[in-house]
Specification:
Layout: H1 14-20, H2 25-38, H3 47-55, E1 58-60, H4 63-72, H5 86-90, E2 104-105, H6 114-119, H7 124-136, H8 139-146, H9 161-181, H10 187-200, H11 208-231, H12 235-252, H13 255-271, H14 275-289, H15 295-311, H16 315-329, H17 346-359, H18 363-376, H19 382-398, H20 402-415, H21 422-435, H22 442-457
Helix pairs in contact: 2-3, 7-8, 8-9, 8-10, 9-10, 9-11, 10-11, 11-12, 11-13, 12-13, 13-14, 13-15, 14-15, 15-16, 15-17, 16-17, 17-18, 17-19, 18-19, 19-20, 19-21, 20-21, 20-22, 21-22
Length: about 450
């Protein structure tokens, strides 16, 4: 006779086990964490979690894991991955009041680091509200929901794990939206959570670890908002935000934040026509970054230095920095890589090198690297695809390949329906000026007409 409890025994998730393939649970967990970083999520997946999913103990993942799994396995829904419908696990009909479910949907706390999970006091209702805000609304709503709206009186204000987590999530949300849609529509709204984050630095905290997270989170948020200003052509605002992040890093004694702030300062200085400052800032970033143990970070910082040398027309120094960047990149990823560097893969390496050769006037070589950047870029990073395509169009135009340049420019214009970036529009405007001498070519004429129409709608 069957046991009355037989129906409550977890059913192994064989579909998910097949997705793991030949990788060990530990190797698969590492792949999950990498995929999470690629889309701006943060999950603390380990071999134990993978085992719980495959055994059927976790019948449905939380929303963060769901987004990561969908990113890893495009075209598959939860059912395809062997999970039960969320409403069947978490809905009122899934179990009688007071009874334990046969399996469970993972709680939001299980996707965080153990420290945050142990101390979280949020109810599941509050977590769902916060999650919906991050998934469906803009950064202004994030500030109101995640950072608690208007701050209480200064003497009564306290900050804990939930406030630190809210700041960190605001950073990830902004980065994810920028990757997909560009900076122009986000910048003004992003100032509100930044203001709220810096107000939290004056709050009382019970633990130094929370204070450290708040400083790091506020500094990263300042850099993210600075980047939105940078990419939308507000260079003075960007410089102010980067300086604020750098000051925060120095106060907190945070070399990782300091390296990031100098990295972005170097990029801004190059774009603002201050190449010598770009070189110095990139070198300062490398001094801060050496103690972090991330070869990929040092590779990116070497590329920032190369960009400054290229604008100074110092070809030997630029080539030396590019070779150093390649050698560091080839060392591969590591756990020491900062979370914000999820964008930096082979495509970005090629794109930044293309910009260097373009600045040095080697248009054909620049076009070759830009073309590789477009081909290698993950489809998730829509903004970067548009940027590399615009770079390709610019280099081809200057190299005299007018028809190819017009075709690339047309593809970039199509992507601007999804991406709002003053920087990319400026690049395409410069390309259109170069191509006017070839207006007799029908393909070029079509691009110039489309560009003029698009410029009028901005």
């Amino acid at each position: 006779m069957a046991s009355p409890h037989a129906s409550s025994s977890p059913r192994p998730n064989t579909a998910f086990r097949e997705l793991r393939g030949q990788r060990s649970p530990g190797e698969f967990a590492a792949a999950v964490r990498r995929a999470a970083r690629e889309i701006g999520e943060h999950v603390s997946c380990d071999a134990r979690y993978v085992g719980r999913v495959e055994s059927g103990e976790i019948r449905c993942p939380n929303y963060a894991y769901e987004r990561v799994f969908r990113h890893m396995f495009p075209g598959r829904d939860l059912a395809d991955m062997g999970f039960a419908p969320r409403e069947a696990v978490r809905g009122r009909g899934a179990r009688k009041k007071g009874s334990a479910p046969p399996g469970h949907s993972e709680s939001p706390a299980e996707s965080r680091t153990p420290r945050a999970a142990d101390s979280s006091t949020e109810s599941s209702k509050e977590s769902d509200v916060r999650r919906r805000a991050f998934m469906t609304s803009g950064t202004a709503a994030v500030a109101a929901v995640s950072l608690g709206g208007a701050p209480p009186a200064r003497a009564q204000r306290r900050a804990g794990e939930s406030e630190a987590l809210a700041v960190e999530q605001a950073v990830r949300r902004i980065r994810l939206l920028d990757d997909r849609h560009g900076a122009d529509g986000l910048y003004r709204r992003a100032n509100r959570p930044l203001k709220a984050a810096y107000e939290l630095l004056d709050a009382k905290t019970r633990r130094q670890s929370v204070a450290d997270r708040l400083h790091a989170g506020a500094g990263e948020l300042a850099i993210s908002v600075g980047w939105l200003a940078h990419d939308s052509g507000r260079f003075a605002d960007a410089r102010s935000h980067y300086a604020e992040a750098l000051a925060t890093a120095r106060v907190a004694g945070d070399p990782a934040l300091e390296a990031h702030a100098f990295c972005n300062t170097a990029f801004l200085a190059r774009d603002a026509g201050r190449p010598r400052e770009a070189v110095r800032a990139a070198q300062a970033a490398q001094r801060a970054g050496r103690q972090l143990g991330s070869a990929r970070l040092m590779s990116l910082l070497a590329l920032r230095e190369a960009g400054g040398w290229a604008r100074l027309e110092d070809r030997p120094a630029c080539e030396e920095a590019l070779l150093r960047a390649r050698a560091l990149f080839e060392r591969g990823r590591s756990d020491a890589d900062p979370e914000w560097m999820t964008f930096f893969g082979e495509a970005e390496l090629e794109g930044l090198e293309a910009q260097c050769w373009s600045a040095l006037g080697d248009w054909r070589r620049a076009a070759d690297h830009a073309e590789r950047a477009v081909a290698l870029q993950d489809r998730h990073f829509t903004r970067n695809i548009a940027l590399y395509t615009a770079q390709l169009a610019s280099d081809l135009a200057r190299d005299g390949a007018a028809e190819e340049a017009a075709a690339a420019g047309g593809r970039a214009l199509e992507l601007l329906d999804q991406v709002q970036s003053a920087r990319i529009r400026t690049m395409l405007t410069a390309t259109a000026r170069v191509l006017r001498r070839y207006a007799a070519n029908p393909a070029v004429a079509e691009f110039l007409t489309r560009h003029a129409a698009a410029a009028q709608t901005v």
